[in-house]
Amino acid sequence: MAALESFRDGWTALSTTPTLLVAGGLLVALSLAGVLDFGPETEPIVALGLLLTFPFVLGGFLGMAVAAVRDGESSLATFVRAGVANYSRLLAATVLFVAGLVALFTVLFALTLVPLVLLVLVDMGDAALVGAGITFALSVLATLLGIPTVLLFVQFLAPAIVAEDRSVAGAVRRSVALVRHNLGSVVGFTLLWVFVVSLVPHPEVLLEVSPTWLPATPYFGASTLVVAVASVLSTAALTYCYTVHAAYFLRLAGGQPAWTRQSDRPKPAGTVETQ
């Protein structure tokens, strides 16, 4: 199964290309920066900086991960090239993705709020009350299912941009098509992947459980030891998870990992190649 094989692909890519940990570390560093307390005056500037930095780091990481899975090797030079080459498209995709989620959430929230307002402000009969209650229940259900469904169908947006050099619109269509044609596999993989990610000790969680008797680090509010442990654990685990996701996209897209090709398999000692 592609879903299970992608977890093996991720481990193999990480073991053959340990420099992926550097790129993964930068992604973790961005998440750590997001939980720092810079104060109300500085936070908007930091948020803008993270928004402008994220596409480059994401593009670089995906470029390295795709190269490691597809070719069996990668380098930090790949990180820089992929980050620069895909920056504008990933930035546009990030802005559109966030704006789309906000718009979707706003619409669903409004649909949920309207029945409640009608119940409070309008003196309705029993039949109207039942109808408003049903509308409210359906609105809540749409909210609970709508956002996860959107995330499910566009989860391969960034990999499609980096691995297949597609435009933002083309990457959206590609992601939706892959999910639609492999719905069972994608749903199973996504549930398994989210479960594995949920087991990862995320930086913000580790920072919150910092022992009070250890000296605090400026901005983090946690000890230097906890910050270091959180960074190392999160870097290794999240880098593996993100590489697995890229490997799964490549398998869905028809890409074949380097170590599964006959010509790239290790040859027994003493084997003589023939022309």
From TrEMBL:
Q: Which domain of life is it from?
A: Archaea
Positions of transmembrane segments: 12-33, 45-69, 90-122, 134-162, 183-200, 220-242
Coiled-coil boundaries: none
Q: Does the keyword Endoplasmic reticulum apply?
A: no
Q: Does the keyword Coiled coil apply?
A: no
The DUF7847 domain covers which part of the protein? 1-249
Keyword line: Membrane, Transmembrane, Transmembrane helix
Record InterPro entries: DUF7847 (IPR057169)
Entry protein name: DUF7847 domain-containing protein
